[in-house]
Design a protein that fits this description.
56% of the residues lie in helices and 7% in strands. By secondary structure, the protein is an alpha/beta fold. The protein has two domains: 2-168, no CATH class; 177-439, Rossmann fold (3-Layer(aba) Sandwich), CATH 3.40.50. Strands 2-1-3-4-5-6 form a six-stranded parallel beta sheet, sandwiched between helices. Helix 1 packs across helix 5 and helix 5 runs antiparallel to helix 8. The longest helix has 30 residues, at 59-88. It is elongated, with a radius of gyration of 28 Å. The protein starts with a helix and ends with a helix.
Length: 442
């Protein structure tokens, strides 16, 4: 229906694109012709910049819908115009007029497409950066640009339908507050990251949980340090959240090394009194054997150099006393084995673990694709950093089964790349986790 509407609404734009030809073919007063062309030009400007998105949609979603609509009309007009140009080549019309008509049509259809592209670029999150590079070098090449424009159109439409369906779902279940748990959610990041306000470690997940009633807080420990040091910082944060909310306990959702930090805080620092549940996501409970291998082979001088550079950078970014090497060494199989031996689970806390895996080296970019290869000898599958065997911990463990060829990487599972993955809705995945916590009385 929308394609039919777009075709109908863009007819005046098509007529303007062929103004040089129509000027010759239509036998009416020149002044009237000029007025008609001016009206078509004004209509085209309005058509290019008017919002064509669904009324009531969220700002970015509506802009995305509008951009896809205009771009789709532009691509369709390009195809129609190509047919017109080919057909005119078999007529006896003046060659210069045909050239002028072709140039006019090219300029207007290209501007129409670029108008849609600009809106998409300002709103879309699923168009790969590679396609923007390709666009930069091909937008002015007839036929080739249509192929690139169509790629943008398909990506924008797909993202629009996905995001609009998500908003409709949230609106339908808003009153149910399916994520409004008894205890607030404390989300604990992994190694080499911080809890920044501008760039959220958890991508679009926290806002999705909040929209469905969750009360979300962050661990705010340093980016890299010993498990014991990070756990001490986390323990202080747990106390802060409890003091701020008045809640008796918190539900922790921890990714990667954050799961080790949380277990240490619970078992060694008395936080079991304040933690109701711990859900670990792709945490290397039994270590990363490929890290042991790398540390054995990489000279200490290089390790020290990287450690100093990293610590200097993240001190500037807000860490008080980061330690790259201390954090890395606590991910080794040896150190995790010692941690497990000295860190029994508390009977006061409900534990659960979740793990995913990549299905091929193409499942993720650098450095996870390299990590995938390095990890292959040490388990039946891995997420680019952690093997399946290391990530599944305790009796209440769950493996994310992804039907596609891609699989789910260490970054995908926290929405690091803000990518809509076919057959895996990462936001809904966390909604289900928190919904289950609520249903179980936590």
């Amino acid at each position: 229906m929308k394609k039919i509407r777009g075709t109908f609404l863009s007819i005046p734009v098509l007529l303007l694109a062929n103004a040089p030809l129509l000027w010759k073919l239509i036998d009416i007063n020149s002044l009237l012709k000029t007025l008609i062309i001016i009206l078509f030009a004004l209509y085209t400007l309005v058509f290019m910049f008017k919002s064509h998105g669904r009324k009531g949609s969220h700002g970015k979603i509506r802009r995305l819908d509008s951009g896809a609509f205009v771009l789709g009309c532009g691509v369709l007009q390009s195809v129609i115009q190509l047919i017109i140009v080919i057909a005119l080549c078999f007529t006896k019309l003046n060659g210069w007029r045909l050239l002028a008509n072709a140039l006019c049509a090219y300029a207007i259809t290209t501007l129409l497409c670029l108008s849609g592209i600009v809106r998409i670029a300002a709103s879309a999150r699923q168009v790969k950066i590679l396609w923007y590079v390709i666009l930069l070098f091909t937008w002015y090449i007839p036929l080739v640009n249509c192929i690139v424009f169509r790629k943008f159109y398909k990506a924008a439409r797909s993202e629009y339908y996905f995001e609009q369906a998500k908003l409709d779902l949230d609106a339908a279940r808003k009153e149910n507050e399916i994520c409004k748990t008894k205890y607030p959610i404390l989300m604990v990041h992994g190694i080499f990251f911080r809890d920044w306000q501008v760039i959220n470690y958890w991508g679009r997940v926290p806002n999705e949980l909040i929209r469905n009633g969750a009360e979300v807080y962050y661990g705010k420990q340093q980016s890299a340090n010993k498990v014991s040091v990070s756990a001490t910082e986390l323990a202080e944060r747990i106390k802060e959240v409890i003091a701020e909310t008045g809640a008796e306990k918190v539900n922790i959702i921890a990714h990667s090394k954050g799961g080790l930090d949380s277990r240490y805080a619970i078992s060694h620092l008395g936080m079991d009194k304040y933690v109701a549940t711990l859900t670990t996501i792709n945490t290397p409970h039994y270590g990363c054997k490929f890290v042991d291998m790398l540390l054995e082979k990489i000279p200490e001088s290089i390790q020290g150099f990287v450690d100093r550079k990293y610590n200097k950078l993240f001190t500037a970014l807000g860490d008080k006393d980061p330690s790259f090497l201390d954090g890395v060494y606590d991910l080794t199989y040896k150190n995790c084995s010692e941690l497990n031996a000295s860190t029994p689970d508390s009977q006061l806390v409900s534990y659960r673990s979740v793990m995913s895996k990549m299905n091929s080296i193409r499942s993720a970019g650098f450095p996870l694709n390299i990590g995938y290869l390095l990890n292959k000898p040490y388990g039946k599958g891995n997420d680019g950093l952690v093997t399946v065997e290391s990530g599944l911990y305790g009796e209440n463990s769950k493996m994310i089964e992804h039907k596609g060829k891609r699989g789910i990487s260490h970054g995908d599972v926290i929405d690091l790349f803000r990518e809509n993955i076919k057959d895996f809705d990462v936001r809904e995945f966390y909604v289900d986790i928190v919904k289950e916590l609520k249903e179980q009385g936590f």
